[in-house]
Amino acid sequence: MGSITHALLDLHGPVIYGVVAALVFAEAALFFGFVFPGETAIVVAGVLASQHRVSLPVLLGIIVLSAIVGDSVGYEIGRRYGDRLLGMRALHKHRPKVDKAHGLLRRRGAYAVFIGRFTALLRALMPALCGSAKMPYGRFLVFNALGGITWGVGFTLGGFVVGTAFEQVAQWAGRVLAIAVAVVAVVAFVVWSVRRRRRENAVEQEEPASADEPKPVPDLGP
After folding, report:
1. Which pTM was predicted?
2. Cβ(38)–Cβ(123) under 8 Å?
3. Dihedrals phi, psi of 55, to nearest 5 degrees
4. CB-based contact 113:126 (threshold 8 Å)
5. With contact defined as beta carbons under 8 Å apart, do 70 and 184 qualify?
6. Is residue 212 assigned to a domain?
7. Scanning 24, 86, 108, 170, which has its CA 20 to 30 A from the CA of 185?
């Protein structure tokens, strides 16, 4: 994750749009969220926008569109290949997370699409699970769009604010203090991410191991 973040910070010009769009799209469409959370990419992109390397409005539009389209592709993959997809050996070690996503989908229905947007692995899994469950695409799209807009705009603006604050501190108190502030902000974000992952792992350990066969999901069609 650190190497990808460092590579993003070194980007310049229109290539930033392409790389960020690809990472956000691939998170659910290609299940890349198991490797690299998309929220990290868009926070870094927000910082780059604060440095005027890219246009913030254009960046926001690209991120939101990539999130919505990527989840729609994940939905279609789940609709066509749901049973085989959930039975893949690569998902066996993530079975507690898959079961958790199933449970959330059963309890909340379409609302789970919005809720799942804010947890990395649920964000990668939920579209495919909704497709596998035959949730009507129109209903999925509404909550997918609401989640994509809230998530994309929120995290991007968070990165933009951090980057802007860095520049303001640099002008007011010098580069040394600005770097110190940036380090504190980055450490705080990393600690928050690590603690969230630990909480998720703790929940998984408390849940009993489930059978290898994927659990059926009720038909959510009309």
Report:
1. 0.71
2. yes
3. -80, 125
4. yes
5. no
6. no
7. 24
Residues in the chain: 222
Distance from the Cα of residue 16 to its chain's centroid: 18
51 φ, ψ to 5°?
-90, 10
Q: Which amino acid is at 204?
A: E
Structural domain range at position 182: 2-206
C-alpha span between 210 and 222 (Å, rounded): 29
Q: What is the pLDDT along the chain (222 residues), one digit of tens a residue?
A: 556 666 777 777 888 899 899 989 988 887 776 667 778 888 888 888 988 889 999 999 999 999 999 999 989 988 888 767 666 665 666 666 677 777 778 787 778 888 888 877 778 888 888 888 888 999 999 999 999 999 999 999 988 988 787 666 555 555 555 556 566 666 666 666 667 666 655 554 544 444 444 455 455 545
In a domain, 220, yes or no: no
| Structural domains counted in the chain | 1
Amino acid at residue number 75? Y
Amino acid at 129: L
Which of 65, 64, 73 lies closest to 151, judged by CA?
Answer: 64
In 3D space, the residue among 69, 83, 86, 81 whose CA is nearest the CA of residue 125 turns out to be 86
Calculate the alpha carbon distances from 38 to 104, 132, 142 in Å: 21, 23, 20
Residue 214 lies in a domain: no
Alpha helix (H) residue ranges in the chain: 2-9, 15-29, 38-50, 56-86, 95-108, 111-116, 120-132, 137-173, 175-206
